[in-house]
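ok here's the first one, seq then struct tokens
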Amino acid sequence: MLKNRKVREFDIYLSAPQASGKEIKYLKESISQHQLSLFGNQCDAFVGKLQERVGVKHALLLNSGTSAIQLALLALDVGPKDVVLCADFTYVASANPILYQGATPVFIDSEPGTWNMDPNMLEEAVKSLRASSLSRQAGFKLRAIIPVHLYGMPADMAAINAIAQRYEIPVIEDAAEALGSTYDGRPCGALGDLGILSFNGNKIITTSGGGALLSNNQAYIEKARFLATQARDDAPHYQHSEVGYNYRMGNINAAIGLGQMEVLDERIKRKREIWQFYYEELKDRFEFQFPEESSPHSRISASSYFRIKSNRWLTTILTESYEQRETIRLALEKENIESRPLWKPMHLQPVFKDAPYYGSTVAEDMFNRGLCLPSGTAMTEGDLERVVGIIKSVL
């Protein structure tokens, strides 16, 4: 266990938070109105902006995307003996809430096109689990599917939703990294039964930490809201008939989010410019692989045709080998520039070593060869040229 870990300071960070200046107006409003708690005008306004942007009827502001996933599971009554199918190639926060609920995570490998959950492997897992001895245990149920839009790239939601509907399994859409991304013209976060967003400091917009739960199902959001505020019963005194949580977002954080929402489109534009710069400078010269968007109705996966637009939250590449990836990463680190390997697949994580896994080695290969490049919206052209120059010099 690491103790007193020192946070390193870099000249160029992977994805540092950036203030827009527009937050000040809403912060002043919150302070002048003495609305410094979990409720206030800024919370209401931020909810309205999210509902409008994502195209959902209901939204709940929370203290993290992780809390949003747990509350989504609670809204679906996920508990012990239940099974939740989850993307394998993701950050651990997508999967930890499954354990919070005492449920069993089952991890699904990636497809090469989007790097996200492979619909073919998903259906194979559903069929296998329904036929297994596990399904004969009392109380067994395939309770939810959690696809993830990795690094802002939308997953094949049409195929995933078709499987979910066929087997009557709700979908919790992890759009933590994908605010502003779209799938066939529809915003990510509105493509499942429930959607989650993250406003962590490294995301495309931030509330200095926070998240949101989204749905068109009012009952889901009302249940989540009740549980997120310590499950207080409707009584004049403090009465609690079930376990609750302290998961709500504060009005000050919502004020920051309102200012950030005003520049969301600018942030997406800049993220996409950064991706394009890296792509043009590196793809042909070193034959790196980039996750690319489809042209209209071109086939990305083996299962469906769809159009996607990524917010390009982080620019990611697949190098030729683990050794080449490490050569680049260490060269950048030596020059005080932050980069990092892609997410380590969940089935390789010690905490999930006993969890079932369906797939081959797609996610594992991406982890071994993949690298996230600095992609902060405050990066200058000089910063980008410096990063590319170092990569070219060591290769």
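and now the second one, same deal
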Amino acid sequence: MYESYAIECISPRTVDRAYPLAKAVAPSLQQLEWRQFCQACGLSNIPCDADERERIVVALNAKAYVKGLCIYAVRHDPTEGRVLDVPFFVIGSAADRMGVGAALMNFLRSKCSRSACLGIRFWAMNAETWTSRLRGENIACRDHGLFIPALASETEIEKALCASAIEGAETIDRFSR
């Protein structure tokens, strides 16, 4: 089952709808904290490519239900150089996780290209990811996720993602190059 998904920045109409997806991977995250985080991300007029500010996008189905959530930032990795850092990549669709995942991946690949990044780094997610994602030592850590070079083919990306056996709200977990 493949539907068309709209990828858009978090907005007042999607903040509360996206919260259950964030909460699924960050159990200690309170709704007020989520709202404040989303408001801070959404109020910035600075282009995403100009700083390391985190951005939030959601994948919406035709009925405007949130089916995916992604938090990303353009960052400088000491080894890889400029990367698109993705601490949260959550799929919330049991019926079409491949379609939701593909829509979010296409968005990230496009963002990676437009931002002149050398690749996309997905974090291995656990209950501490919400609080640890902003610590400098964790940002510089190379072994906490999957790195996909910017020029990776769709087949290479699909093989890496399929190897992870993604289930429900589970995301890419414990991969290294």
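notes on #2: The longest helix spans residues 97-114. The longest strand covers residues 66-77.
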